[in-house]
Amino acid sequence: MIITEVRIKLMDANHERLLGFCSVTFDDMFVIRDLKIIEGTRGSFVAMPSRKLTDRCPECGIKNHLRARFCNHCGLALDDDRALRPLEGKAKLHADIAHPIHGQCRDMIQKAIMKAYLDERERAKLPGYVCRYDDIDAGDFDNVPFEMAGYRVDTAHASAGSAHGRIEQPSREFGSGIFERG
User: Does residue 131 lie in a domain region?
Assistant: First the structure.
């Protein structure tokens, strides 16, 4: 596995510790987005993309973030100490979505990202600088592999106000389910 691309989005000086966001592409085939470059007390480091942890309200059963003081649905006051706390005492409020399995992989990713970050800072000083981090646009799908031909997004199942729907693939002989030929 090799890192084939790192894209950096620099943050302005208003963000004290957050230096930037990045996406990492592996083998020109797999992308992880929304890694954060953070200035820590012992230097800069890369934080993996994560999600906020939730639990359910004991009254109505609706999910709430662990920092929520009241249920978002019924308004019940929630216990402040419901987050899991390891022996160190700091509550676990987030869980990584993607992360390296061992230190060697983490070091490889961090070195590549920090090099790209320093290069991007230098490029940002040049006249006419344009950030390459932008979200996926239609141009990113010009070279879709032939195995993806025939797939389309079913926008009929998209939520109101959203262009996103379900990705459909060619029908199968033994029942198509949500999949239809595009």
Answer: no
- Tell me, letter by letter, the H, E, C secondary structure of 13-80: CCCCCEEEEEEEEECCCEEEEEEEEEEECCEEEEECCEEECEEECCCCCCEEECCCCECCCCCCECCC
Residue 70 sits in the same domain as residue 35: no
pTM higher than 0.70: no
pLDDT digits (tens, 9 = 90+) for 10-46: 998 787 899 999 999 999 999 999 999 999 999 999 9
Cα radius of gyration rounded to whole Å, the chain: 21
Neighbours of 7 (CB within 10 A): 17
* 178 touches 154 (CB < 8 A): yes
In which residue are the tokens 């262009």 written? 163
Domain assignment present for 129: no
